[in-house]
Amino acid sequence: MIICWYTPVGKVIDHSVIAVSLERMSNTTSQPESHDGDAQQQSQQNQQPYAQQYPPPQGQPYPPYMQQYPQQYQQYPQSPYPAQPQPYPPINPEQARRRAQRKTVGRLAGLILAYQAIFTGASLVAGLIMGVIATIQRVAGENLSQTPSPETFRRIEQDLAQTSLQWVGVMSIISVVVGFLFILLMRHRSILTRAFWLGDAGNPSNSAAPQHARMRPAWFAVFVALIIGIQGVLQLIQIAFAALGVPLVSPTSDSIDEAAITVSMWLYIGLIGPIVEEVVFRGVLMRELKPIGKNFAIITSSFMFALFHDDVVQGVFAFGCGLVFAFVAMEYSLIWSIALHIFNNAILGGVLSEFAASFGDAGNLVYGVTLMIVGIVGLIVVLVKYGWGLREYARVNRSAPGTYWNWTSGLFLTFAILNGMAALGSFTIAMTTA
């Protein structure tokens, strides 16, 4: 008979099942050794097949996993490690620095050379176009029904030469504007910034931050005195050579004197030319050379500015003035170097010179002698009073040894040789025809 009852959770328990379980437990407890022996024997029987099969004979796969892959796997042929590449030779930091500086100088010399080529090309094209127009107008006004006489040709040639002098200012403005547009295209990110024109003002609260000096009227007068002094020294040199029977002729100055009677030439000499030259040589060239060294940037930009004029006499004056302009642009701002350049061209070389010329040869002589005396005296006073400061500035900002070897860059040498040959050629021609 089966007795059943309900557990508290509602499940039915079968007492016959409980009884059978208790009987099995008693048998297991009363015969422990027999049970352990059976388990050990069963374990040996289970392990015997694997003991016979592992490890398998050489050349046979491992059962049972490899039975489904009967093919024999070949060992991957081992090859020696490839030879390690030789390490790069150690880089000399000094050589790397000089190489980078030389590339910088060459790149900037190429930029100035391209600017000069575009400037000259635009001037030639403008002159050719205006010459053709003037020739057509002049020939159209002549009665050429008969064969023109040599006198007619000479008259036409003289008229064309006079017309070209009147249009020199226009051609110069066109060429310099085209050149400026080229520089603006190449350096617009730098030119179209406040720092380019007014300088890096720095942080006034940080004394270590670089700040440009503030221009004062007294300092501007000192720089004007330096320019007049340079011009006075040059005039003294010309007088000395003339006394020896070898007058130094400047083709550029002679052509400017002949063509400066027009408004367009006045605008070119006194306003547009100085602005563009300062932007190119002090704003772009000197500014990008500044990381190499202040002295190097000032001297290199002034030297290239002198060569750019293609005139020996004018180039010497341009180099001296270029040093002053570069110092002002470096320590004050580009605006002040432009103002100084305009003052030199428009006032000293324009208004005062024309006012003296209105009195004839006597006026020119008085003006020249006065300018020479005032300039030399002013130069001596400035050098005596501020010469120690200039020497200290040159000492503090001196360039590293070997910096001027950067002038051996190919493009810099090309610029120097081409412009030097042009200057010597024009000077030789002017001296032989004087």
UniProtKB/TrEMBL annotation:
Record's compositionally biased regions (Pro residues): 54-64, 79-92
Residue stretches of biased makeup (Low complexity): 40-53, 65-78
Keyword vocabulary terms for this entry: Hydrolase, Membrane, Protease, Transmembrane, Transmembrane helix
Domain CAAX prenyl protease 2/Lysostaphin resistance protein A-like, chain residue ranges per copy: 262-347
Region (Disordered): 25-100
Keyword Transmembrane helix listed: yes
Protein's UniProt name: CAAX protease self-immunity
InterPro entries cross-referenced by the UniProt entry: CAAX_protease, Rce1/LyrA-like_dom
PANTHER family membership: CAAX AMINO TERMINAL PROTEASE FAMILY PROTEIN, SLR1288 PROTEIN
Domain of life where this protein originates: Bacteria
Organism name: Bifidobacterium hapali
One annotated GO molecular function: endopeptidase activity
Residue stretches spanning the membrane: 108-136, 165-185, 218-245, 265-285, 292-309, 315-335, 342-359, 365-388, 409-431
GO annotation terms (biological process): CAAX-box protein maturation; proteolysis
